[in-house]
Amino acid sequence: MSATIATSQRPGGLCAPHALRSLLATSIPRQYVHKTAQSEVLLTGWFPLGPDRFRVTARWPAGHSFYGPVYGHHDPLLIAETVRQAVPLLSHAAYDVPFGHRQTWHTFRYAADPAALAATGAPAEVEMDITCSDVVRRGGRLVSVHLHVELSADGARLGTVETGFANLAPAVYRRLRGPYADIDEAVRRAVPLAPPVPPRQVARTDFADVVLSPTNDPHRTQLRVDRAHPALFDHPVDHAPGMLLLEAARQATHAVAHPRAVIPTGMDVLFAQYVEFDAPCWIQAEALADGADDGAGAGSGERAGSGAGRVRVRAVQNGVPAFTALVTTAPVSLPAAAGRTAGLFIPRQSAGRTW
User: Fold this and answer.
1) 27 — pLDDT class (breaks 50, 70, 90)
2) Residue 349 phi/psi, 5° resolution?
3) Model pTM score
4) How far apart are CA 162 and CA 57, in angstroms?
């Protein structure tokens, strides 16, 4: 239980309960997905399919300030952000979780079809059929739940997600976090923002969107926690959010593959503990050789050499593993001519990888 999916305060100006279901069937107010900016809301509606079964709809924009197309494909982390938004929506709308409670990730796993991720230059209409299981309640309140999600985009099967999360009341969260629950104090103790790696090495075009900083170890970077980032830090929080850690895993995977072009078609993630602001968090990434199990040592391997394969990513803070991810990649064919390709600049010559 180590990365908050979402936190919010009680919204104002929303409709009465008898009109809520009608409203949420056609639009999703930002408070229900724990966003400050309505422009960051991807979800467009929801309705129940049966006991603990729901359909949630979303629209992926043709271009997004952060989760834009990469190598001609929709950013796979749009899958993660879309499901992340569905967690507080269903918590509040379907399971009567009060506003002000926090939803915290335990595990997250997605697998996507690269063909269904192909960007067309138009928005993508996304549907999620969600089945909730292992629903735990205490005192009538939701405590934890597991989600199985089947996704489609523009009518084509996109992939699946499995995730589990806990719901924490404010008093429980304060007890769990202790002195780290004070946002102002957490920010005051934060380590300085480290310089970024070159954006092209992590499939980014803007230095401000890079979440890794180089070190002297080619297999290790430092997590960059830019609390002013408009997408990753839409509102103040007291620790590194889960989407920042997923982005770090994705960028570390691109760095391992660089200069080859890949897209992360799957992640299997465990959140072990919170990543705090007051100490460096080290991101370790290594390509797994063919036949290596998830805990095996790194190897170049034929699959990694071709741009396809698996990358193991760990986040370690104060000597303790805080986050692990096994990332599956698929190679992407690029045009022979260099230039701007689906929102990502591909250099004519790539410098050696630095971290």
Assistant:
1) confident
2) -130, 135
3) 0.86
4) 17
